[in-house]
Structure formats: structure tokens, C-alpha cells
Specification:
With 202 residues, this protein is mainly alpha-helical. Helix content is 78%, strand content 0%.
């Protein structure tokens, strides 16, 4: 049931196609170099954020709908156990998102290495690029894993699929960024008038 809609995997590829067209437009029409840090950072942040939100929504839709309609109890009365039900949910998510995610991570690794090895960058700047690029890739993988499990959990108790998605996204994505912003503000106030903590701190 979770993977019945055959257009869902194609929708992810269409989204990545739009991102690629926007990136080509910025390079060809706006004349930004493809190793421009702002272009790569914007592309990575946008694609990663949309994929995380998309997965957070998709992960809980089926279970939340079944729970809302009361048919989840019927599903649990079948010979299927909890592991098999969750495995079905994971297979549906894998079918929709795994290949696009591999492509996104591969492209980001290529961009990260290309920017870090740019001849005009000092060694310290290249190390910063690698650190932030690696952090973004690791966060993408860990956020998706956390979103999936939290969404499954929220789907079993939320009153609607939308509330389940909002609960998972707010816990995994919004709350950590609010805490990070608070730490950054405190660090900035603590070092006011002097040199900041530096990029390694963040």
C-alpha cells in the first residue's frame, strides 16, 4: 500500500531535475562559476532540506492513515508481525528515495572536493569547505534515519497524518536548529568585541 503510487519515485527525480536546471541556469545565464561557494551551499541546503521534509512526510502517511481509520488493528491481527510491517514501510521509502539520495550525496562529495582543491583557496579555507561539506552529508543521513523512526512512532499516536508529520519534523529538524542558533547567539555575545570562536567551533 505504501508504494502503490508508482509516480512517487518519479516525482523525486523530477524535483532533482528542477534543481539541476536551476543550477545550470545560474552557471550559464548568471555566469556563476560552478565552484562558487554560495551556489554550491544554496544548492546543497535546498535539496537536502526538501528531501528531509519529504521523507518526514512520507514516512508516517500510511501508518497514520491506517491508525486514523482504525484499520491498523486489523493489520496487527494478521500473521504479519511488527518487524514485517516496518520492513514494508522501509522498502517503500527505499524504493522512492534511495537512488535519488545516492545521487545527491555523490554530487555533493564531488562539489566539496572540487571547492576544497580550488587553486585560489588557502589550506585553511579548503579544510573548512571539507568540514562543512562532510557535516552536511552526515547530517543528511542521520536526520533521515531519525526522521524515519520518529515518524513511525508519531504515526501511531497522532490524530492525523499531518500532525504526525509535523511532530516528527519539529522534533528532528526544527528543535536542533533552534538549539544550535541559541548556542551561536550565546557564543557571539560571549565573544562580543573580540575574535569569535571560529568555524571549527560551529
Amino acid at each position: 500500500l505504501s508504494s502503490r503510487a508508482r509516480f512517487k519515485p518519479a516525482a523525486v527525480w523530477i524535483f532533482l531535475g528542477f534543481v539541476a536546471c536551476w543550477w545550470i541556469y545560474m552557471c550559464v545565464v548568471i555566469h556563476l562559476h560552478w565552484t562558487e561557494e554560495s551556489l554550491i551551499l544554496t544548492t546543497a541546503l535546498f535539496s537536502n532540506s526538501v528531501l528531509k521534509l519529504w521523507i518526514g512526510i512520507e514516512a508516517c502517511q500510511r501508518l497514520a492513515e491506517e491508525q486514523k481509520m482504525g484499520s491498523l488493528e486489523l493489520l496487527l491481527s494478521t500473521p504479519l508481525n511488527e518487524r514485517e510491517i516496518l520492513r514494508g514501510q522501509f522498502l517503500a521509502l527505499r524504493r522512492q528515495f534511495l537512488k535519488p539520495l545516492v545521487v545527491v550525496i555523490g554530487v555533493q562529495i564531488v562539489f566539496m572536493l572540487a571547492v576544497s582543491r580550488h587553486s585560489l583557496l588557502p589550506a585553511e579555507e579548503g579544510a573548512r569547505q571539507v568540514a562543512f561539506g562532510s557535516a552536511g552529508i552526515v547530517l543528511l543521513i542521520l536526520d533521515i534515519a531519525a526522521l524515519t523512526w520518529v515518524a513511525f512512532r508519531a504515526a501511531l499516536t497522532a490524530k492525523s497524518p499531518n500532525r504526525a508529520s509535523a511532530s516528527a519534523i519539529s522534533r528532528v529538524l526544527l528543535l536542533p536548529w533552534i538549539m544550535f542558533a541559541a548556542v551561536a547567539v550565546v557564543a557571539g555575545l560571549w565573544t562580543a568585541g573580540g575574535p569569535g570562536p571560529g568555524w571549527k567551533f560551529y
